[in-house]
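To: structure subgroup
Subject: Chain for Friday's discussion

All,

I'm putting the inputs and outputs inline so they're searchable in the archive.
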Amino acid sequence: MIAETASIFKKGDMILKPHSDLSVKNKKINLIGLSRSELEAVVLSLGLKKFRAKQIWHWIYHRGARDFDEMTSLGKQTRAELQVKCELIRPKVVREQLSKDATRKWLLNPPGGGEIETVFIPEEDRGALCISSQVGCALSCKFCHTGTQPLIRNLVPADIVGQMLIARDTYREWPSSQGRKLLSNIVMMGMGEPLLNFENIKKALHIIMDPEGIAVSKRRITLSTAGYVPLMKRCGDEIGVNLAVSLHAVRDDIRDEIVPLNRKFPIKELLNACRSYPGAHNARRITFEYVMLKDVNDSEADAKELCRLISGIPAKVNLIPFNSWPGAPFECSSEKSIQKFANVVNNAGYSSPVRRPRGRDILAACGQLKSDTIRKKLR
C-alpha cells in the first residue's frame, strides 16, 4: 500500500515503510493489534494450548487488561511465560486536553513511533471517537491543518486499536459487556487518509468490531475518505462500515485546488464510485462532508449543483463551518450563507445538518489536528 500511496505524492515527500505487527528477533511481541489467527500462532509458538488465545483475546479486548497478571483465568506459570516473551503496549499519552464543551483530545505516541491526535466528542448519552490512520498526511487539503505536514508513516493495527483502548481506559468502559456506553461510535476522520492505509485499517477495524472483544457494530463506524476511488468498493465489501466522502466543492477546478487528490480522481469518477458503494441504501446513506469556505464554495448556485451531482445517491450532507488554525488561508462562511446553502439542500430532499463546532479552543475540531512535534518546529 505504501508503494501505491507513493504514486500520488510529489517528489520529496517522506514516506517510511510500514512497521510489522510481529516481533523482530529477541524482541517481545506486542499482542495488541494481532488478528485472532496471529494471536493463536504466537500462543502455539510458546507451547501453549490453542484455547489460551481465546482467553487472552477476552482479557485484552473485553476486559481491557493492561498486564498479564490481571488474566486470572490463566495459570501463574502461563502468565509468567507470557511476561517473558510478550507485552501489551498501548500508545503513550503525551498530553490530554479537555475543552470547555467537554471534547477531549489526546496527543499520543504510538508503539510504532511518531505522534498522532485522537479526539472524543461526547453527547448527552453517547459520543464519537475520532481515530487517526496515519502520522501526518500526504493529501495536502488546503483547509486541513493535518495536510500542512508530510506523511511520516502509516499506523499499524496496534496504533489504531490502541487509540480505542486509551479512550476506554479514560472513560472506564471496561468490560465491554457493561451497559450503554458513552464511547458508542467511531469515526475514521482523524489524521491521515484511511484508504491509503487500507490493510492496516481493515485489520484494526475487524478487531474493534469482533463481538467477543471491543464489540463496536459496523453500523456505528464511519470511514471518511477524500476520494481514493480504487479502494472504495473494497472498503464496502471487506470492512462494511458507513462511508463519508470529503467532497467540499462541486467544480473540478475548485476541488483540484482545495483537495488535490481530485486531480487524479475527479468529481465524476468519485461520485460513480459512491453510486456503486456496496451496502449503500436509504437506511445506510453515504455522508458527503462539505466544509464551508467564504467566497469559495458557499453560494446558492454551489448548493444547487451539489444536489444535481448527488442525485440518485442515498445521501445526506454534513455542512462543516470552517475551523481556522494559525496561518489558515480561508475564512468561514457567514451563518447567513451557511443557512441559505442548507435550505437549498434540504428543499431538494437531502438531510443537511450544520455540524456544530466542538473543541475549537483546544484545536480539536474538524480539520485542526496536527502532530505536536510539527507545531513545535513551526514555533
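Points worth raising on Friday:
The first strand starts at residue 29 and ends at 30.
The two ends are 33 Å apart (CA to CA).

D.
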